[in-house]
Design brief:
Order of helices and strands: EHEHEEHHHHHHHHH
Strand content: 5-15%
Distance between the termini: 39 Å
Bound molecules: zinc ion
Strand order of the largest sheet: 1-2-4-3
Radius of gyration: 17 Å
Length: about 210
């Protein structure tokens, strides 16, 4: 059961319920209850985060609660259009499913899955230096610093990387990849065991669209 705020229309609620069923089928888990709370303004978002938030930030998920900027404030208080509201809500709901599997899931996998499921296609033209930064170190599987992830096109890169993974691997493989803790020292070996290919081949698949 989802408690929707008043600005979610009946049509949107039906679509979100269908979306949750799709996620339940893919991830093989059910979320019994979740809440969606609307944040009235940018100023209230800043208060919530206790800092000045970026103008692209309109949603945040904590546990089983999604906080989202009020729909009619999207255009005045963020860079997003009101039409993006439903996609962003889907993105945040997807985070609830992923963190139920592993709260410690690497950013690229969590964000890339949320973007792909929510249908938030990203532009493919990525700056060369950001690609180098993303793939250059072992940070491919460990979390970036959040600002670095956001400011160095981590969202766009993750969208394409995960799109490729979804096209190449079954949902059970994706679920097992989500379960790898970013704290484990043998994650390369774990990727190999899960996917049946070497980490280098896995990287090659991940990079192939970029
Ligand atoms: Zn996200």
């Amino acid at each position: 059961m989802i408690k929707y705020p008043n600005s979610v229309t009946e049509h949107e609620a039906i679509e979100l319920n269908k979306f949750c069923n799709r996620l339940t089928n893919f991830f093989g888990i059910k979320i019994d209850s979740m809440s969606i709370i609307e944040v009235k303004s940018r100023a209230d978002f800043d208060k919530f985060f206790r800092e000045k938030t970026e103008n692209w930030l309109v949603g945040e998920t904590r546990g089983k609660t999604v906080y989202i900027l009020k729909k009619n404030k999207f255009e005045s208080d963020s860079i997003h259009k009101e039409e993006e509201y439903l996609q962003i809500l889907k993105h945040e709901i997807c985070h609830i499913f992923i963190s139920k599997i592993n709260n410690d899931c690497p950013s690229f996998l969590a964000e890339g899955l949320c973007e792909n499921f929510a249908g938030q296609t990203k532009r493919i033209k990525i700056k060369e230096e950001n690609l180098k930064n993303f793939f250059g170190k072992d940070i491919f599987y460990v979390n970036y610093n959040y600002n670095e992830f956001a400011n160095k096109e981590g969202y766009s890169i993750s969208f394409w990387v995960v799109k490729e993974l979804l096209e190449n691997f079954s949902n059970s493989v994706i679920i097992d990849l989500i379960k790898i803790s970013k704290k484990s020292s043998d994650w390369k070996k774990q990727i190999e065991n899960i996917t049946g290919i070497s980490y280098e081949q896995y990287l090659k698949i991940a990079k192939s669209k970029l």
